Amino acid sequence: MARQKRQPCAETDALAEKLGKTIQRLRTADKMSLGDLSESSGVAKSMISQIEKNEANPSLATLSRLSQALGTSVQAMVASGSDGSALVQKTGVQDTPLLRSEDGLCELRIIGSMDTIQWVQWYDFRANAGGVLESSPHPEGSIENLTILTGEVAVEVDGERWTAKTGETLRYKADKPHSITNIGGTPVHATMVNILAHAVRVVS
Q1: Average pLDDT of 114-121?
Q2: DSSP per residue, the chain
Q3: Of the candidates 136, 137, 113, 5, which has an alpha carbon nearest to the alpha carbon of residue 62?
Q4: pLDDT given for residue 6 in this prediction
Q5: 130-161 pLDDT tens trace
Q6: I need a labelling partner for 175 at 20 to 30 A (CA). Which of 28, 67, 121, 122 fits?
Q7: What is the pLDDT of residue 201?
Q8: pTM for the whole thing?
Q9: Which is higher by pLDDT, 150 or 87?
Q10: Domains, the chain, with CATH or none
Q11: How far apart are CA 44 and CA 142, in angstroms?
């Protein structure tokens, strides 16, 4: 069955525009040329230019490489700020930043708070059967916590492989390339919490 084409989404378009402007702002603040950022991230200079101009739809892997080269996180680049009211934040599904894997089978919604992104990054993860989410290394010493709400996955880090199913949690070092694969026949739903390196050092 052919996949149904998604209709234009104003929130998604606004997020993409903000993302491009943020990458350009961070790059120029660090006095980096497009060539410098391309060399540091491994992302083609033409692709970076298209992202900054909101002319391309980058994959999660591409955003991860760019954020690492810019010394920040994907969440920090796309998260919205607070309006200063007594309520810290209330968001709906349509307002929550959504990233997709390169194979189109995995979705990662950023549900963590801007107040904690330097220490903890919190995601809602979903993957269709066979979906693979590949991630670049996080800062050295970082720990990723993956709790499976439904389904079964395999996690691979630097040649090691573990599996987890509904109700189980895997905690693993995320400072090396790592991937999550849906190895079951049904969709996977999980929560993912990344504890960044400096937070790990504080609590250890």
Answers
A1: 70
A2: -PPPPPPP-HHHHHHHHHHHHHHHHHHHHTT--HHHHHHHH---HHHHHHHHTT-----HHHHHHHHHHTTS-HHHHHPPPP--SSS-----GGGS-EEE-TTS-EEEEE-S-GGGTTTEEEEEEEE-TT-EEEEPPPSTT-EEEEEEEESEEEEEETTEEEEEETT-EEEEE-SS-EEEEE-SSS-EEEEEEEE-HHHHHHH-
A3: 136
A4: 44
A5: 999 998 888 888 899 999 999 999 999 988 99
A6: 28
A7: 46
A8: 0.58
A9: 150
A10: 10-78 (1.10.260.40), 97-203 (2.60.120.10)
A11: 27
Instruction: Compute the average pLDDT of residues 17-36.
Output: 86
> Residue 82: what pLDDT?
42
- For residue 29 the two structure tokens come to 């603040």
